[in-house]
Specification:
The complex is a heterodimer of chains A (116) and B (109). In chain A, strands 2, 4, 5, 6, 9, 10 and 11 form a seven-stranded mixed β-sheet that branches. Chain A has no helices and eleven strands. Chain A has 116 residues and is mainly β. By secondary structure, chain B is mainly beta. Chain B is globular. The chains are: A mainly beta (116), B mainly beta (109). Chains A and B meet through β5, β9 and β10 of A and β5 of B.
Chain lengths: 116, 109
């Protein structure tokens, strides 16, 4: 099967600090990786789509300078929440896909971010 | 424009059958996904429909009608562990996924 890992699974940080979340596809090459945010009792909200070696495409309303995404290889993407604030507290989920056109997305286990 | 709609919450009894509907509107369509998400966990893939018709996979089946912009997920022989949110999402012509808000399914003994 296709496995996607995320690290850390849970992080608590102080307001103003930066937090980096790693997303790895363990047994396949992910052409495309997606970053989602999910607030309690709400649906997934796509933040950005990244293709290996190119700049991420951010959804409307998502600040690219605040949520830095790096997709340096076919198996690793990172999301850095810069200068985190309490309103950034959320469940961040990454997913990886082998490509477009019906390729299912394999989801990481998610990262629970709490900003104090 | 694009939109996708599914019921917010449904309740069913253990051992019964439940159908979760999903309707969508879009000018470009490649396929439709169903995902299951347990509380506090990431979604897991259930099905992907491209062509019209019913696809069966064990206790779960998914149906698609492209002309009607309609899909449903059918769960048979419900078990308590099926209590979860079920998310439908369609893939548009740019291969973007447009997500529904999810249907919370509550299973009662």
């Amino acid at each position: 099967g296709a496995v996607v890992s995320q690290h850390p699974s849970r992080v608590i940080c102080k307001s103003g600090t930066s937090v980096k979340i790693e997303c790895r596809s363990l047994d396949f090459q992910a052409t495309t990786m997606f970053w989602y945010r999910q607030f309690p009792k709400q649906s997934l909200m796509l933040m950005a789509t990244s293709n290996e070696g190119s700049k991420a495409t951010y959804e409307q309303g998502v600040e690219k300078d605040k949520f830095l995404i790096n997709h340096a290889s076919l198996t690793l993407s990172t999301l850095t929440v810069t200068s985190a604030h309490p309103e950034d507290s959320s469940f961040y989920i990454c997913s990886a896909s082998r490509g477009r056109g019906g390729n299912e997305q394999f989801f990481g286990p998610g990262t629970r971010l709490t900003v104090l | 424009g694009q939109n996708i709609d599914q019921p917010t919450e449904m309740t069913a009894t253990e051992g019964a059958i439940v159908q979760i509907n999903c309707t969508y509107q879009t000018s470009g369509f490649n396929g439709l996904f169903w995902y299951q998400q347990h509380a506090g966990e990431a979604p897991t893939f259930l099905s992907y429909n491209v062509l019209d018709g019913l696809e069966e996979k064990g206790r779960f089946s998914s149906f698609l009608s492209r002309s009607k912009g309609y899909s449903y997920l059918l769960l048979k022989e419900l078990q308590m562990k099926d209590s979860a949110s079920y998310l439908c999402a369609f893939e548009d012509s740019n291969y973007q996924l447009i997500w529904g808000a999810g249907t919370k399914l509550i299973i009662k003994p």
